[in-house]
Every structure is written in structure tokens, then in C-alpha cells.
Amino acid sequence: MAGRRRTGHRDRSRRVTVDTTQQDFPWPHIQALIDHGGNISIGQIYPIPCAAVASDEHNMLAALVRREGEGLIEILNRLDASLDAAFTREIYTDEING
After folding, report:
1. Distance from the Cα of residue 83 to its chain's centroid
2. Which of 10, 75, 78, 80 has its CB surrounded by the most CB atoms within 10 Å?
3. Residue 12: what pLDDT?
4. Residue 8 per-residue DSSP state
């Protein structure tokens, strides 16, 4: 999984906090992103047959290309893990642009 570390100053007031009390939801980082005004998109992004992209109001946080045989649950699990890396370690996964 490719990742890049963001350099420079980042406004910490925009940091997304994850509510760990929501144990019944399988993707807490996706939920936190959406709760803070972010969005996800899953589907074709030409010429890629299927991708999952998560972004906040300013940046793309994760962009994943669907792997052969990967189902919706699996790509959502990977997206949630990528968002965890973005929120906690400022590592942004981009499988689309390299």
C-alpha cells in the first residue's frame, strides 16, 4: 500500500476525532470523516473500473483501487484503515496517482 507523509504546517483544529464508543459500527473512521463534513465515493473513476476515495473539505485523504476479487466490505475495511493512518499518523494513501 503506497503512502506519503505530508510535510509542512497543518491546521490541527481540522483534525477529525474518532468516537470509539460506537462499537456497533464497523468503520469508525469513515463515520468520523462523514460526521465532520467529509465524504467518500466508491465506483468508477475513468479509466479505473472501481475505486474508493475519501476526502475532507480541503484534501483527499485516501484513494484506493479495487483489487481483483475484492468485495465492497473489503474495500471499505481498507478505506477505514487508510483513514486511521491519515488521522493518526498523517499518512495519506494514494493508489490512483501513485
Report:
1. 4
2. 80
3. 40
4. S
